[in-house]
Amino acid sequence: MFYKDERLALFIDGSNLYAAAKALGFDIDYKLLRQEFARRGKMVRAFYYTALLENDEYSPIRPLVDWLHYNGFTMVTKPAKEYTDSQGRRKVKGNMDIELTVDAMELAPRVDHIVLFSGDGDFRPLVESLQRQGVRVSVVSTIRSQPPMIADELRRQADNFIELDELREVIGRPPRDVQVERNFEVAATGK
């Protein structure tokens, strides 16, 4: 699937990858993720896309965004739009598909392989276009969740499908609440 001398770029749809990992019951360790794919090829760039609520005093994703920014990821963010749906529920909209697509198309002449971390079927035309330009495309998502997090048309279009659950041992860490409990246990017992 990967060749050591190929120029590689990662495109991470942040909310989609988060939802897929959560559905599988683990959190992503982004330092390990970057190391794993840097080991597989010559890393040109690792992009991470997410929308941020600008008017909130504290955004739970802000520490992650800051950490990624300082640790080798190219952060692409935009303000999320907040609205109330017809049932009166507060909703947040922050689709980053266009930004990811434009960046992938611009970088395509400079890479051999793109790894897309998303299961969103809207990316099928992007994958097809990248392939026509001679870029191999691997898609990372999951079919093991209920329902599956990857659109069938995206999975079929990709050159390679990488099951996120199979990367769990390499890039995963226990979900935060389990990790916090373990830290308290270690502090309390010394074990």
- CATH evolutionary superfamily: 5'-nuclease
**Uncertain spans, ≥5 residues at pLDDT below 50?**
186-190
* CATH class designation: Alpha Beta
Q: In whole angstroms, how far apart are the ends?
A: 41 Å
Order of helices and strands: EHEHEHEEEHEHEHEHEH
Q: Output the number of helix runs.
A: 8
Could you say which overall geometry the principal axes of the C-alpha atoms support? globular
> Do you know the CATH topology?
Rossmann fold
Strand order of the largest sheet: 4-3-1-7-8-9
Largest sheet, if any? 6 strands, parallel
Mean pLDDT: 89
Beta-strand percent range: 25-35%
Total number of distinct structural domains:
1
Structural class: alpha/beta
Radius of gyration: 18 Å
Q: Total strand count, please?
A: 10
Domain NYN: 7-165
Protein name: NYN domain protein
GO molecular function: RNA nuclease activity
Organism: Antarctobacter heliothermus
